[in-house]
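Re: the multi-chain job from yesterday

Posting the exact lines I submitted so nobody has to dig through the queue logs.
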Amino acid sequence: MAEGFDIDHLAKLARLSLTAEEKALYASQLNQILGHFQALADADLPATIDDARVVDESALRSDEPGPVLGAEAVTRIAPASRDGQISVPRVVDDES
Amino acid sequence: MSTSPSDWEVVIGLEVHVQLHTRAKVFASSPWGFGKEPNEQVDPVVLGLPGTLPVVNREAVEKSILFGLVVGAEIPERCAWDRKNYFYPDNPKNYQLTQKDFPIVVGGQVEIELPGASRNVMGEHKFIRIHHAHLEEDVGKLSHAGSGSLVDYNRAGVPLLEIVTEPDLRSSAEAEAFLRSLVAMLTQAGVADCDMEKGQLRCDCNVSVRRRGAEKLGTRTETKNLNSISSVRDTVIYETARQIRELEAGRSITQETRGWNAELARGYVLRDKEDAHDYRYFPDPDIPTLKISRQTVTRLAKQVPENLYDRQRRYVEKLGLPYTAASVLVNDRALAEWFELAVAAHPTNPSGIANLVANDLLRDLAASAGAAGSFDQAAPAPVSLASCPIKPAQLAGLVKLTDDGVISKQQAKEVFAEMFKSGQDAAAIVDAKGLRQNSDTGELEKIVQEVIADPAVAKSIAEYRAGNEKAINALKGPIMKRTQGKANPVLIDQLLRKFLA
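And the result, structure tokens for all chains:
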């Protein structure tokens, strides 16, 4: 357990299987990154919302339908497909 | 110790997912619609392919704001989108774009009407508070085939407004009434079509029970993905009974996610997706915070239609409609507006018009539409007035002919049927069929005098002369009979009074 996070839990959420060496390496790197955020959090800044990331409604798109890829192109980039659909290992959330 | 169900109170909160009425998807220009071949409505933005960027659809934003205005909510100056991370094949990007901290709609309330003691009695009204509504993208559709699952991304990226209520609902009837009211408001404002057969409205239903009078809420369960109003009603009934049974047996309720099997009418525990609740939300770096101008809000406020219960109160209080007719009309905005056009053409008898519209017209429209049975009995589909052969002013004309005594109410039914068949004016049909009531005083006077002279009615005459006003009605039947129903009832009444005076 490093500061503020659990590397095993994060690896599981990200569907990554890590070796012990990798875990140590990434835990230390993540700690560095979090350290940078802590420096930002500690900085004495006015409590204003970042206006640089605010747009007005002119940034919206109009409701005009555009081109589509087509089922063939969509399924071609998937590892497996059947009948125009992408084929994945069975996932079940119905009554079982 | 055994307790009765009335010792318990059920507390229900709903999360209603509604597909907004737009042509393109919410962050991409791909079109969407029901019934297309799998994966034919997908573009690179929907799939989140490298190099693509989402851009928010203006119509989806405006429809969301319009919903907020319909329920009297606050439209915050700014809203923002977040990433909700999870791995599941229905989700092409491994995150869903949604709004967590800054939703587009905050607050508001929905007026509901509970069923009355009988069909012609209005039930209790209540207000259900809305916590917020956020604009997000729908996910793809999975189907299970043999050892694998198949994914269709047509639905991925469809604009979805998630409407979250406060836990204000207290029974399955209230949940049902809320959804019916919400659907009416959404469709009447043109925000969404809410076609449940097409999955355009889906519900997550949070249920808990507590001892009546207790303040603390019980542990709740969430039943996900209910696709009809009746499923929500049945889930509430089922889950309430199950939780009371568990608690009375001394067991506790587990906070869990559940599914509903509509065919078997029973709930079940969903296999818990591991760590599914750790969504690691963070602000989406691709979509900037959106500032919504007050001009836009003001402009959209003008599109808010009259609330259906305000309309119902106006019909009953100002137009004098019976509740039964008013409640039928207000559920369908097009029908209500059709009715109002007819009233404008003949303003003196709104009830007469309402009865014809709510009974005869609706019945014949449904029959001519092939009487398509509604998928959800709790939410009958509105009829189409586009193909209605009768125009509002023509119906007004029919009611006026009846009011003026030109034809009887019985004849009006016959004329109505003919109008529905041919689209002709009532007056033309009345003339063609020779239905105009006999107003020839000379001929009628003779018949009236003959009837009065008949000893069979002597008793009624004596009663009338003794002051019993109603006794005069007994004389009208024989007169009508002798004129084959064509005599003008107003004239008969006048003549009888004249001769008996």
